[in-house]
Structure formats: structure tokens, C-alpha cells
Amino acid sequence: MGKNQYVVPTDDGWGVKGEKNEKLTKKFNKKAEAVDYAKDIAKNQKSELTILKKDGKIQNKNSYGNDPNPPKDKKP
Hints:
With 76 residues, the chain is of the alpha+beta class. It has one domain (5-60). It is 20% helix and 34% strand. Strand 2 (13-18) and strand 3 (26-28) form a beta hairpin. The longest helix has 15 residues, at 31-45. It is globular. The termini are far apart.
């Protein structure tokens, strides 16, 4: 499993950052562009994607690898 990816707010837009990395992987003007880019990396590395809001709180999380809490099947 690769590094988990984060979409984080920056002073002038949005950035994508690998877990425990100090520097951004890439910067974007629009959040949607950052999310798309980070999603591709997370899918490729079979890792998790965490999207933050402007205030730094978690907005959304997606797992593209080994999900520790997979959804349970809802069979009748």
C-alpha cells in the first residue's frame, strides 16, 4: 500500500500532499482539480484519500485500497 493522500488548503488555493510529506506534491487553484489529482494517486497506490475543508477539518475520506472498515452487505 502506498502513501495516503491529502487535499489541503493553501494560502492561495489547494494542494495535494502525501502522508508525512512536508512539501506539497502539487498545487492547484481549484479544489476539484486537486481532488481529481489526489484521487488518481490514491487509486494507483491503493491508499486512502482525505479531503480537508478550508478550516482544516476533514470533509471526506475515501479508501482505494485495503479498507479497514468495509461496508457490510445488506442482503435480505
